[in-house]
Amino acid sequence: MSIAELRQQLKLGKFSARELVDERLSRIGKVDKKLNAFLEITAERARADANRIDEARASGESLPPLAGVPIAIKDNLCTKGVTTTCSSRMLEHFVPPYESTVTQKLWKSGAVLLGKTNLDEFAMGSSTETSAFGTTSNPWDITKVPGGSSGGSAAAVASGECLASLGSDTGGSIRQPASFCGVVGLKPTYGRVSRWGLIAFASSLDQVGPFTTNVADTAEILQVIAGGDPLDSTSLKEPVPDYSACLDNPLSGLRVGLIKECFDQEGLSSEVKESTLAAADLIQSLGVELVDVSCPHFNDGIATYYVIAPSEASANLARYDGVKYGYRSESSNDLSSMTTRSRTEGFGAEVKRRILIGTYALSAGYVDAYYKKAQKVRTLIRGDFDNAFNQVDILLTPTAPTTAFSVGSHSEDPVSMYLSDLLTIPANLAGLPAISLPCGFDKSGLPIGLQLIANVLDEQRLLQMAHQYEQAASVMKQKPAGQYIP
After folding, report:
1. Residue 436 has pLDDT above 70, yes or no
2. Are 3 and 66 in contact (CB under 8 A)?
3. Which domains does the chain have, with CATH numbers?
4. Is 74 a catalytic residue?
5. Residue tagged active-site, from 100, 131, 149, 244
6. Distance CA 164, CA 245 (A)
7. Which run of H or of E encompasses 457?
8. 485 has a pLDDT exceeding 90
9. What is the pTM for the complete model shown?
10. Residue 358: phi, psi to the nearest 5?
């Protein structure tokens, strides 16, 4: 059921908000022991919020746009009075005294919080295996990962535990799990959505966005969470357009660029490549012109990212010193050893690895060779995108080089894990909006994701093309039988 359908059915009294919430909570109780998508379930709050919506409807009040929509929130977005852990022992008992801007907007729009979802610790990972509270499984095959770092949010939507969810995307952490789990995932333009209340990983890259089962719902969620925020100096004060109004506008005359560097990757699965190119052909049949374009520095994105992101993480995570808040080791008698032990015991291996990489890249004698050089390459990557958008309206690539991989298969090889974000990272470095949506299945029945990238603040056109491809392809109606949790 789409959000628009839910709104209509609720208005007509076909069901109550409480019935919808109880249905989703029942679903969570049935499947989440297998998935571990949720870290905390806020059942009492959800039922109370649903009851208030039903009371408002019964008294004839006009309901807000997301009234009754059951939503899950990635556990790196602060929720007032609800534990926010970042899937880390460091913040295991942290209860924020404030609400993030995006979640506050959701609650004002009538959305109902079902709970907080699992993620890679501090959003550092591509499989949701680095969580201190256990790995999340992929609903299509529980021996596979759901992607990361927003794996819990993607799995919760894919399994029907919630209607929509929020994640964060620093280098592909919305789009890659959306691809692996067969759902729609959007990373908006950097600054289009406030980051206030998002626990920082890499501040120049992080962006909040939605997971849904269809593009129309993505447009509805973005409508609510987008906009400038005086609490976030990096948020854009540009007006927010009506994203839903543009979805059915004609595509004729638009040009879509196939980035040739993306289709020549050594690690790109043949099934992923074929499915993505077939999706491009279908888009062409909708009146769109396909054009081959080149972004010469596209493949430099991953090396650039793994200097810039860890450097920013090193600075952001320095606040976890065992003094102000978070985990504190009690086994030391002096400040220095207490801080060292608190970080040693509170952070997991992947977080420590990235802090060390970032600290090294920023250290005296190396900052010019690594960090500053990476920033120059970042500028070149953005320049490539600018040149491409002088020729085309939208860029098209696979979302991930492969479909979901087996749990544990990359855990001992960080580089192979990092390469799963090869195709998503450049959009973050350039601050561009990008969306992943299903475009087919591999021979094992696992979803394949198509990535569309638009120019800055061109989410309208991005959603328009994604929606019309989705309607023409009807990919999820063709889903194969398998281990998918019904």
Report:
1. yes
2. yes
3. 3-251+399-478 (3.90.1300.10)
4. yes
5. 149
6. 20
7. none
8. no
9. 0.97
10. -65, -40
